[in-house]
Amino acid sequence: MSPEPIISRFTAAGQGQVFRFWNELAPAEREALLAQAAEVDLDEIARLHRELVVEKPATAAGVAGLEPAPFEPRPENGGDTAKWMRARAAGEEALRAGRVAAFTVAGGQGTRLGYDGPKGTFPVTPVKKKTLFQVFAEKILAAGRRFGRPLHWFIMTSHANHAQTEQFFAAHDYFGLGRDRVHLFRQGRMPAIGFDGKILLETKGSIALSPDGHGGSLRALHRSGALDLMEREGIDTLSYFQVDNPLVRCIDAEFIGFHLLARSEMSSKALPKAYPEEKVGLFCLRDGKLMVAEYSDVPMDVQRERNADGSLRFSAGSIAIHVIDREFARRMAAGGAAVELPFHRADKKIPTVDAAGQPVKPAAPNGVKFELFVFDALPFARSPLVIETDRANDFSPVKNAEGLDSPRTCAEDQLRQFARWLRSAGADLAVDATGLPAHKIEISPLYGYDAETVSESWRRRPASTITPNLYLE
Ligand code: UTP
After folding, report:
1. 59 has pLDDT over 60
2. Closest to 9 (Cα-Cα) out of 371, 370, 1
3. Could you identify the atom of ligand 1 that is nearest to the CA of residue 212?
4. Per-residue pLDDT for 61 more than 60?
5. 268: Cα separation from own chain's centroid
6. Domains recognised in the chain with CATH numbers
């Protein structure tokens, strides 16, 4: 790569500081820096600095005109049972026809958990300490067996964790899914800038680049060739979930069926908020269009508003579980003024170097990172649909090292789920007032991944007694 044109472009854009230490760099370091610089869209950075830093849109101004979004209630909460059964049948038919693939976004940095390695390799289950990736793999394998069509699994990684993730899957022989059915691809990156708009260096020879957010998944699906591969394989529907939630129904026939019957381009699961202050995005309508408002953008008094029956007016929380139509992802990836995901700004402490090239670890935010959010695609989707889900069977993420949404709370939620399934299958198992069994047990997704499949297996192969550390597989 010839350095001059790139360096001149950066200099002309007022970003010459990126090459400040050029004369001190070894040839390989120069090559690496040029390759990073070639990734950067200087016009986009200038625009984002102007729009999101200089002009600073007032976040709360966005609340005007928000209405709660309607959603499809679960049968036990007054929903139409026949409709849920029709949805399930439609979803199962699509699964039997091989139209569905699983899609996990696993490119995040996982800073809150503070685990050294790709988050998907974090051990989460209570007895066997299976990793997040293994739990999802076994659920996907189980669904493939049930519907007679092995599923493809697409996983978005980051530059930072791609190689390790690849090695992890190879070392575990792709958990029996088959190497040709597990597709890893990297998401894009964005440079961090100082508040003055200058691109920050991480070291003398590298730009401070970070993943472009889970919304980067739509472009990355396209860029990596994943969408074309799906088309060749006859897959038109993606079941999207995050890497941190082992309770998720990776492949949920009812959800897929609702999405297909509504001819929706992007569907979502909503969780009724447990309490007004719960930090989840809210499904809303603005000008008739479905969107997710971030909790920090909706004033607390609005989040506390109640309906006449005492329920929260804005209750439908977003838990980042979606079904996405393949061609919708392609349309969003192509972008253009009509369908462009907006970047969000996050002020961060960004490790960098000072004018002398010495490392600086800032104590306060010193700049801005830019991220895309996948739910920002909703207003562009045709017939977007929201269905209600139940927390106990779909959501218990591992976000923090301790406290709320930690490995401990997640393991306990798994134990409660296993105990519920076993008790509904007829097993004799004592639980406390919160549903937690007295000792640890674990059920492999290959034994059963919901009440129905666990009951089926239990009828064929019950355990004589439920002993501590019992593992059903
Ligand atoms: P989070 O919002 O929890 O972010 O991501 P994170 O980076 O993983 O964790 P923290 O905030 O640093 O602690 C939600 C989901 O979106 C994915 C994550 O891997 C996770 O599955 N994600 C997030 C990406 O794939 N890419 C991104 O750029 C950001």
Report:
1. no
2. 1
3. 28
4. no
5. 12
6. 3-54 (no CATH), 66-400 (3.90.550.10), 406-473 (no CATH)
